[in-house]
Amino acid sequence: MSDMWVDPADDPRTYGNPKGEKATLREYLLNYRLTLDMKCAGLDAEQLARRSVPPSTMSLLGLVRHLAKVENQWFQRVLQGRSDRPRLFSRDDDRDADFNDAVADPAVVEEAFATWKAEIAAADQWLDALDEDDLGREVPFDDDTVSVRDVLVHMIEEYARHAGHADLLRECVDGRTGQ
């Protein structure tokens, strides 16, 4: 086995046969969250903040900040109706502050990962309290509504897309591919 891959015995992701729609959606979301975490593992602040190719501002650290912001937006602000909460990693003068402010500073890295993991924990705690029937619950969103199910599917899509970005970013940093 290549040293570029995590030993299957050490892979934290699960590929069970979850029972029910909620369990299936939660497993996919969890595995994509873990994939991003694995892509960032073992890198220092400079490596995490390293940008891809100009003019892109995308970096692994930027992805962590962005996904913390997305977790907060959908699970806290939209699904739980907490729109009075401040938007994470956002500035009025820069809609891409989650990426643009992802600088090679250990304190910025620590804050990003702590915030991301706290948002995941808060989302999971809220999701744990839902019944299978709650997936169809509609909440107001913009001038329409959105269901819990739609948000979960969107979050899976969001993480899947960014896991692909993370693959390329990590390969640029140290050649690591796969997983």
UniProtKB/TrEMBL annotation:
Start and end residues of each stretch annotated as Disordered: 1-20
InterPro entries from the UniProt entry: DinB/YfiT-like, MST-like
One Pfam family cited in the UniProt record for this chain: MST
Protein name (Swiss-Prot/TrEMBL): DinB family protein
Organism: Micromonospora acroterricola
